[in-house]
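Example S7 (structure tokens).
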């Protein structure tokens, strides 16, 4: 579950995949189309945005990963409305069939928010130490249409032998991760990752503790995921699930 904000005001709650898909009552969108077709019209309905919604004369629009726990903490859960919406979804098998299964491990929203962006290098380094897989930086070579470029764009992952990658959202095709960060073309650079971690440790001694903390999170949730999978009957396929972001 995610929320889209203008300043400090929520204008939309939506579910998002681990890639670039947004699931909304109006349909399934890429993040770009969701912004243009859902968020922008909602924003234009209001003309008296407060000063905290502006930055350099422009509306400050952003998205935050909340998860179900974040919605509950905000006191926004309406069980009757949820039951009604669940029944509507279950009656629409076409829509549900288009919703991908969320990759394992399914970490809490606060962890996703911490390691999806600026903390991605720390998470990739910790995951590399836990799994023995090589960590690398995905470096932008070409931007997807509709995405703007503000500063350097990169993302840190570990790379599996089959070419799939893994970050805080789980293991998935590299193309899905690239789409999340607006990358049409990219390349892997293990040296860039090592240089980034080395620089972090040089200028910020607490980086060692940050990596250790990420390792503890990874081990905790990998153990939990393994326990869940072990309860399945031998040779039985897992029951299909739909993402709860």
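Recovered sequence:
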């Amino acid at each position: 579950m995610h929320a889209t904000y203008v300043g400090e005001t929520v204008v939309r709650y939506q579910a998002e995949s681990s890639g670039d898909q947004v699931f909304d009552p109006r349909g399934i969108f890429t993040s770009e189309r969701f912004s243009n077709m859902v968020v922008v019209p909602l924003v234009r309905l209001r003309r008296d945005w407060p000063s905290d919604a502006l930055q350099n004369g422009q509306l400050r629009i952003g998205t935050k990963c909340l998860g179900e726990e974040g919605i509950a903490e905000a006191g926004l859960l309406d069980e009757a409305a949820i039951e009604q919406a669940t029944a509507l979804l279950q009656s629409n098998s076409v829509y549900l069939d288009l919703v991908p299964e969320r990759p394992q491990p399914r970490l809490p929203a606060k962890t996703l928010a911490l390691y999806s962006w600026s903390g991605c290098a720390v998470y990739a380094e910790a995951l590399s130490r836990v799994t023995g897989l090589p960590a690398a930086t995905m470096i932008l070579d070409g931007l997807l249409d509709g995405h703007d470029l503000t500063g350097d764009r990169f993302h840190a992952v570990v790379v599996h032998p089959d070419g799939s990658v893994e970050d805080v959202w789980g293991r998935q095709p590299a193309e899905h991760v690239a789409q999340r960060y607006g990358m049409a073309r990219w390349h892997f650079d293990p040296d860039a990752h090592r240089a980034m971690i080395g620089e972090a440790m040089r200028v910020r001694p607490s980086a060692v503790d940050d990596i250790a903390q990420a390792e503890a999170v990874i081990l905790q949730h990998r153990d939990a995921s393994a326990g869940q999978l072990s309860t399945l009957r031998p040779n039985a396929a897992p029951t299909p699930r739909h993402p709860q972001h």
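Notes on this example. The first helix runs from residue 31 to 44.
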